[in-house]
């Protein structure tokens, strides 16, 4: 089977459309758009068998990670110990919710929210990053749905 089958080409197109959307958001709203772009690409999946389920699990994991990151900001200034607590908490919650497939997305979301530039207001940056993660996940699931629908049509009509 060729690497350039229809499904792979549609996945490339899906990623490119997501990149364009994320880049436009980045150019319009730099503080949110960069994190949105990362999250869009994290949500997309080449595996069409369970694309929507994977996307939804990744969105749940990103929301978990974002919530943990924001909670950490409220509890204590962010440092290595707090980041490690956040990552461990994300893994525990994902295990508890049976979202093991999305552990990595949850951990990355914790890092996205908690990492900050020196001199920036921590809380504002965390909220902007959380908003970017949520927006990116929503864009990613919409793209997943649209492209999943296209592939279903292709299969239905044997194109």
Pattern of helices and strands: HHHHHH
Number of strands: 0
Distance between the termini: 16 Å
* Principal-axis shape: flat
Structural class: mainly alpha
Poorly predicted regions: none
How many DSSP H or I helices?
6
Overall average pLDDT: 84
Helix content: over 70%
Cα-atom radius of gyration: 17 Å
Strand content: under 5%
Q: What can be said about the biggest beta sheet?
A: none
Features:
mainly alpha; 79% helix; 0% strand
Q: Quick recap of the structure?
A:
With 159 residues, this protein is an all-alpha fold.
Describe the structure.
This protein is mainly α. 79% of the residues lie in helices and 0% in strands. It contains six helices and no strands. It has helices at 6-28, 30-43, 51-75, 80-96, 103-114, 122-156. Helix 4 (80-96) runs antiparallel to helix 5 (103-114). It is flat, with a radius of gyration of 17 Å. The two termini are 16 Å apart.
Strand and helix map with partners:
Layout: H1 6-28, H2 30-43, H3 51-75, H4 80-96, H5 103-114, H6 122-156
């Amino acid at each position: 089977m060729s690497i350039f089958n229809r499904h792979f080409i549609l996945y490339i197109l899906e990623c490119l459309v997501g990149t364009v959307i994320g880049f436009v958001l980045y150019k319009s709203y730099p503080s949110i758009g960069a994190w949105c772009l990362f999250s869009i690409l994290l949500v997309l999946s080449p595996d069409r068998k369970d694309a929507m389920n994977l996307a939804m699990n990744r969105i749940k994991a990103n929301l978990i990670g974002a919530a943990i990151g924001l909670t950490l900001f409220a509890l204590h200034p962010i440092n290595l110990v707090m980041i490690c607590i956040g990552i461990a908490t994300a893994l525990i919650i994902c295990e508890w919710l049976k979202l093991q497939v999305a552990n990595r997305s949850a951990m990355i979301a914790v890092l996205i929210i908690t990492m900050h530039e020196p001199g920036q207001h921590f809380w504002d940056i965390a909220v902007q990053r959380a908003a970017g993660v949520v927006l990116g996940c929503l864009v990613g699931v919409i793209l997943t749905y649209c492209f999943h629908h296209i592939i279903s049509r292709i299969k239905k009509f044997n194109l």
